[in-house]
Amino acid sequence: xxxxxxxxxxxxxAAGVVLLAAAVLTWLPGLQPWAxxxxxxxxxxxxxxxxxxxxxxxxxxxWPTDRxxxxxxxxxxxxxxxxxxxxxxxxxxxxxxxxxxxDGALQDAGARxxxxxxxxxxxxxxxxxxxxxxxxxxxxxxxxxxxxEAGPAAALAVIAALVLAAGELRPRAGR
Length: 175
Known about the structure:
Layout: H1 3-25, H2 38-61, H3 68-76, H4 79-99, E1 107-112, E2 115-121, E3 127-132, H5 134-173
Antiparallel strand pairs: 1-2, 2-3
């Protein structure tokens, strides 16, 4: 495997760890400074998209004719590295799952003119914008931020594993 594959996978995994750490920090008391900021979402999207495109370019250039070769190449990656990436993926999935609200609870919190709002069930029984307290706002904003940070961390773990598998395939492509 070439050093560029290892570096790309390392940068990708490190970005995933940073996002997962930021997601876990939202459980600390108090509103996090990055909770509810749209620049964070745009930045994360840019990082994940850039790393995903780089991975797809690498894999597409050497895509095996037999798709099972990618699975065999994954088995050639050192177990400790795959274990670390699997741990990152599972931890990110657990954090994401713990913050996703499927019961119609409040989500997408915002503040305007000193009042706090979120999308949730209205008194008429439909979904719409409702006014909430500051405590509810902080809880919803942190939960939304947690999901937006941990979800891309799981994707970055998969991208890093695919880059390493592509690196293992590269020597075989010359045979």
